[in-house]
Every structure is written in structure tokens, then in C-alpha cells.
Amino acid sequence: MQFNNIVFFDDQEVANLYPLTYTKPAADLLCGIFTLSEKWQKRLTMPVSYLAQAHLSKKYVSQANENSLFINSRLVYNPQLLSEIMALPSDTVLMKENIVLAYKKIKSEETIQTNSEIVLISRCHNLFTLNAQEIENDFEFIFSTNESEAISSNNTVLGKGKIYIEKGAKVEASILNTTDGSIYIGKDAEIMEGCMVRGPFALLEHGVVKMGAKIYSGTTIGKYSKVGGEVNNSVVCSFSNKGHDGFLGNSVLGEWCNLGADSNNSNLKNNYEPVRLWNYTMNSFEKTGLQFCGLIMGDHSKCGINTMFNTGTVVGVSANIFGSGFPRNFVPSFSWGGAHGFETYITKKAFQTAEIVMQRRKETLSENDKEIMEFIFEKEKQYRTWENNDK
Questions:
Q1: Among 215, 216, 207, 210, which residue's Cα sits nearest to residue 186?
Q2: What is the pLDDT of residues 58-112, one digit of tens each?
Q3: Are 149 and 201 part of one and the same domain?
Q4: What's the rounded Cα separation, in Å, for the pair 220 and 137?
Q5: Measuring CA to CA, how many Å separate 178 from each of 40, 160, 194, 315, 346?
Q6: d(C-alpha 180, C-alpha 133), whole Å
Q7: Cα 173 to the chain's mean position, in Å?
Q8: What is the tens place of the pLDDT at every residue in 298-321?
Q9: How far apart are CA 79 and CA 325, in angstroms?
Q10: Measured between alpha carbons, how far is 197 from 119 in angstroms, rounded to an integer?
């Protein structure tokens, strides 16, 4: 059977990835150098569309037809699994225990259990725990199919690992350590002078690492994002900024986020116990089993200067946090305030800010985007408890 497109479908488990999947399908999450969908699309070289959650369906429109290949949005690419998927009979569903992984017809009834090892993104923190290995996996694909630009001789390179530099990228007077992993620098990206970078590391297209930054292994900086200070094992998605000194560790920042100067997060509890994170489907904090776990921040959220985030903090979509002291470990979407208390960040004002921020990158906040954010605003009323107190 010949395919003409890939359709990534969101299953019910994507709610465990809120707030990151409030605004996008799971397949659009960044892990490594590529998003989950890009990992498959670049190997299969065919168009991509989505069967997304209902509130996302106007923006992410499905192009499903009788010649589509359907893949679970949360599924991380691996070559053995791809072979199984391609050999799958057209009327059969590929599963791992009770999880649907892939199928070729919408009304498939027969099932086959895979024997392959699979990786599914089941929680937000998976994005940073898997990031180092996924940088290496994506790097090998890029390195095997393209030729790197030369690195400037005024940099200091340590280790015998690989460095890949895309056309237009600039790296000057910095220390690049490949002892523990590869370093990828995307098209027109820049590592300014005096930076110290340890692989595995990925800086995507037009991203910037600012002067004197210290970047540790397992970190990805997304497209058009700017990062300074100290960053360890974190994923900073596209169009987000941590432009100044301060520490970010074992964290995921969504798109269009901004951390104020000298903002920091804790990634280790004082008693060294495993960290808990807010889980939207459980309506409670869930054990991660991780000793190191920092900040999960949804799209369009911001914090003021000198903000302190406690270990295992989850911030929703379009929150604005500021002031002294530690804000709570779960900050609902459209919250405005900090440790001193919160009020509601109404959507009209949130849209105004988003439009200004996006225009700086020549992007627009569409009507579909506004509808999605209105949906999130209504859905998270239950967590903005102060609204009930104000009535």
C-alpha cells in the first residue's frame, strides 16, 4: 500500500502532557533536534497532518484519506518500529499492550502486538529525561545526510565527539566540549563569545546563546530562542527567551515564554527526595521518581526579574508571575501574580501581549489561536480558586 501522508493522532493520554499539549498536538513537542512528528516525517518524506484534540482541530486540520498512515502522536521514532509499521497489513492495528501505536485504515479491526521496544512521551518531564539521547539520534540522521560547515579556529574544542554546523551559523571564541556527546548548531544560529557548551547539545535555527553562558549536557534551544546564564538538561522551545543570568535545570519551557533577569529554578529538593509534579488528569501532584526535576511552563507564560521557582513547579498557559518569594508549585493558566497572591489574567489583555510579542518575530496570533486560549481559560477556571472567593 502506497501512502501519501502521515496523520498523527492524539490519544486520551495527551492530557497527561498538559500544559504543553493544551496548545498543540503531542507530535509537535520538541525532544532532541526535531519535534516528534519531524523525526518520522524526515525519514518518510511525506506531508503531515493531525487528528488532534477537539479544541485544536480548527488549527490542526486532518488530511486523512484512504492512503494515510496513522501514527500515535506520542510515539518516538525508532527504525525497528518503522519497519513493523510499514509491513503492517492495511486492516490491522499495531499495538503495545493496550496502546494503539499505528494503523493504515480508519476502520481497522485486527490487532498485532509489537515486540519492539517503544518509547512514548507519557509525561512532560520525559522531554528532558530523553533529550540527550534524542539529540544523538537526530544528530546521526543529520550527520549522515548532510555536510557540516567548518568551525572557526578561534574556538576551543574538547573531546573527540562530533560537531555539526549549519550554513550561516556563527560560533566564535567559545569552548565546545564533545566528550560526552555531539553538538548541533542550526542555520543562522549564534553562540556568542565566551560561552561554555557541553554536548549533547542542540541550538536550532536562528537561536542564540548569549555571551558567557554555561550550557550543560542534554539541552536543546529552540528556533529563534535566546538563552543566557546557566542551563542544564532542559528543553527551551521555539520563540522563548531566558536571556540573562540565572539557572534553569531539568526543565521544559513552552513557546513564547520569557524568564526575567536572574530568575532561577530549583531542580533538587533539600531532602533529596523524588520530585512530584502537578498532573491535570489526576487533579493532584504525581510522583515522578526523579531526583532532579525543575520547571514545566506552558506557552505564552512569563516571569519577572528575580523570580524563584521551587522544585517541580508547573506553570500553565499565559501566566504572568512576579514578586518575591516562591510562587506555588502549580500555577494555573491565566494567573497574574506570585507568592503574594494571584488574580485572573483576562484573555483580552493576554491577547494584546501575545500579539506584541509575536509581531517582533513576524508571527501573528490567529483567530484559531485565540479560540484555543479561550478554551484553556474556561477549562482552568476550576484551578483559579480566588475567582470563587471574589464572588
A1: 207
A2: 999 999 988 899 999 999 999 999 999 998 888 899 999 999 999 987 776 789 9
A3: yes
A4: 13
A5: 27, 6, 17, 33, 46
A6: 11
A7: 29
A8: 999 999 999 999 999 999 999 999
A9: 48
A10: 28
Quote the CA–CA distance of 120 and 281 in Å, as a whole number: 17
Domain span including residue 171:
123-255
Are 197 and 263 in a shared domain?
no
Residue 118: inside a domain, yes or no? no
Q: Do 75 and 93 meet the contact criterion of CB atoms below 8 Å apart? A: no
Q: Which residues contact 362 (CB under 8 A, 6 or more apart)?
A: none
If asked whether residues 279 and 235 sit together in one domain, one would say no
